[in-house]
Q: What sequence folds into this?
């Protein structure tokens, strides 16, 4: 991520999609210790940001995006299954190289009491229904200009083989 020094802050949202089938097939014995996650290659991660902030690597694990000091950066994660079967949750963004431009990350939540959901009694989902849904993000404010490389750590959950209504920890990556 590259930062520049300009006035007026903005909110930058980064969607991280993990191909959990790839992760499980190539790293089937993950760490159960969140402080020592299993390292993986870049083939399973896909990051997307607004085109206005994308510098290069849109849709890849090597996304290079711009932000300014004072901007808020929010990472949101999902599995290729939209967290319905396998689920992922980012739990750490750790400095790797370059300038340290991020402050500490924290989880935040927004609850929409009338969020739109498909109408399951209709073949095409319309007209939409509403439901209470809480959306989470892992957020930081950019503290300075520079270029930071970072590791993103996530927990992977899978359907519990003994209870298809729940998900259990598969491992940390």
A:
């Amino acid at each position: 991520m590259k930062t520049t020094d300009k006035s007026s802050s903005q909110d930058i949202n980064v969607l991280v999609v993990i191909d959990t089938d790839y992760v499980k097939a190539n790293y089937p014995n993950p760490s159960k210790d969140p402080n020592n996650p299993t390292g993986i290659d870049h083939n399973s991660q896909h990051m997307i940001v607004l085109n206005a902030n994308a510098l290069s690597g849109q849709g890849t694990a090597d996304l290079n995006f711009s932000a300014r000091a004072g901007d808020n950066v929010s990472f949101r994660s999902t599995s290729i299954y939209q967290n319905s079967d396998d689920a992922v949750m980012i739990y750490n963004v750790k400095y790797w190289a370059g300038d340290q431009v991020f402050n500490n990350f924290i989880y935040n939540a927004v609850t929409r009491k009338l969020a739109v959901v498909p109408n399951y009694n209709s073949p095409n989902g319309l007209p939409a229904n509403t439901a209470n849904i809480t959306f989470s993000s892992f957020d930081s404010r950019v503290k300075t200009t520079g270029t930071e490389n970072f590791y993103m750590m996530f927990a992977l959950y899978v359907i519990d083989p003994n209870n298809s209504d729940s998900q259990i920890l598969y491992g940390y990556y």
